[in-house]
């Protein structure tokens, strides 16, 4: 009985230490009773988020660092996260901030604090989630506009419009020609003409 209790204690101790072994350096991790982690990476002079974050992270803080953006995919495995503190960072709202903006839009239930642009000047103090496509106008492939597709569609539409105009002009010309023939040739009656031509003649 004592041996079984010892084995259980060793297993629990192993699981406990394993969960903390995932804590990324130089952050400090605190385990909640329900098993989730609070990962505190605040005031670590971080310029980028290069570490692998534990998947059971519930609360994450990057408060008071030197972060300007978060690398794409860095937060994708945090399926249990509830709070994210991004305050006191010089967030640069250029092309590289698009991932963080889209991540916040895809995770509306996560309470995010401090996600505010510090640069460029025209975006200063603007919440990152309020950014629109206008701020990413110079991002090239990241915000690609299909100009070739637009041009092709325009050409097709113009071609169809031109074809319709040509057909209408041809029909009007044929109708006038038939009307002239009826008017000048006594041997041709309106009954000899096709139904469509008779309608057009009648309207003229």
Keywords, please?
204 residues; alpha/beta; Leucine-rich repeat, LRR (right-handed beta-alpha superhelix); 2 domains; 5-stranded mixed sheet; 4 helices
Overview of this protein structure:
It contains four helices and five strands, in the order αββββαβαα. A five-stranded mixed beta sheet has the order 1-2-3-4-5, with no helix packed on it. By secondary structure, it is of the alpha/beta class. The chain is rod-shaped and about 105 Å long. 37% of the residues lie in helices and 9% in strands. It folds into two domains: 2-140, Alpha-Beta Horseshoe (Leucine-rich repeat, LRR (right-handed beta-alpha superhelix)), CATH 3.80.10; 147-203. The termini are far apart.
Q: Let me know the average pLDDT.
A: 79
Distance between the termini: 110 Å
What does the overall shape look like? rod-shaped
Going by CATH, the architecture of the largest domain would be Alpha-Beta Horseshoe
The share of residues in helices is 25-40%
Low-confidence stretches: 4-21, 142-151
Beta-strand proportion? 5-15%
Output the radius of gyration. 35 Å
Number of domains in the coordinates? 2
CATH fold node name of the largest domain: Leucine-rich repeat, LRR (right-handed beta-alpha superhelix)
The run of helices and strands is: HEEEEHEHH
Q: Which structural class do you get from the secondary structure elements?
A: alpha/beta
Biggest β-sheet strands, sense, barrel: 5 strands, mixed
Main β-sheet, spatial strand arrangement = 1-2-3-4-5
How do the helices and strands line up, and which of them pair or pack?
Elements: H1 2-21, E1 28-31, E2 37-40, E3 57-61, E4 83-85, H2 98-106, E5 111-113, H3 147-184, H4 195-203
Parallel strand pairs: 2-3, 3-4, 4-5
Antiparallel strand pairs: 1-2
């Amino acid at each position: 009985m004592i041996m079984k209790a010892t084995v259980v204690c060793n297993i629990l101790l192993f699981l406990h230490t394993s969960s903390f072994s995932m804590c990324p350096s130089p952050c400090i991790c605190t385990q909640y009773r329900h098993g989730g982690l609070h990962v505190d990476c605040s005031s670590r002079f971080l310029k980028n988020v290069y570490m692998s974050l534990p998947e059971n992270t519930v609360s994450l803080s990057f408060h008071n660092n030197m972060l300007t953006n978060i690398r794409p995919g860095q937060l994708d495995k945090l399926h249990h996260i509830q709070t994210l503190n991004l305050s006191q960072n010089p967030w640069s709202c250029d092309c590289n901030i698009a991932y963080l903006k889209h991540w916040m839009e895809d995770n509306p239930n996560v309470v995010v604090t401090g996600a505010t642009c510090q640069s460029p000047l025209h975006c200063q103090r603007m919440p990152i989630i309020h950014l629109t496509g206008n701020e990413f106008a110079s991002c090239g492939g990241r915000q690609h506009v299909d100009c070739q597709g637009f041009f092709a569609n325009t050409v097709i539409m113009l071609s169809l419009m031109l074809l319709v105009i040509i057909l209408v002009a041809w029909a009007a010309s044929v109708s006038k020609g038939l009307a002239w023939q009826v008017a000048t040739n006594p041997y041709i009656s309106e009954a000899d003409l096709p139904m469509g031509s008779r309608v057009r003649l009648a309207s003229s």
